[in-house]
Amino acid sequence: MSDKVFVSVFRSSKKADTYVYVRRGFDWEQMPEALRGLFGQPVHALDLVMTPERKLARTTGREVLDAINDKDFYLQMPAESGGYVVEFRKKIEQHR
Q: CA 50 to CA 62: how far, in whole Å?
């Protein structure tokens, strides 16, 4: 595996805060059918040069590159939110 890989990042049209990282030029039809159905229509977010040292908000370049090498993609799901956020929103809506 090269130390630098050109990567395209796509966001999901169905799931908020869900992204998939693939090699630039990756054929979307090669993605597992179940993932394509869950992910929906991919929306191009950005292209970048991924290196093992690159730091990302929720992962590292090494993790992304390892996943791309193993299964051709890296799937980033939304961070789990604490229940207190949902409860807070419910309380606000109840008082309206």
A: 9
Domains in the chain: boundaries: 5-94
Angstrom CA distances, 8 to 23, 34, 37, 44, 91, stand at 6, 20, 19, 7, 40
What's the CATH class of domain 5-94?
Answer: alpha beta
Per-residue pLDDT tens for 2-40?
589 999 999 999 999 999 999 999 999 999 999 999 899
Neighbours of 43 (CB within 10 A): 12
Cβ 85 vs Cβ 29: under 8 Å: no
pTM: 0.79
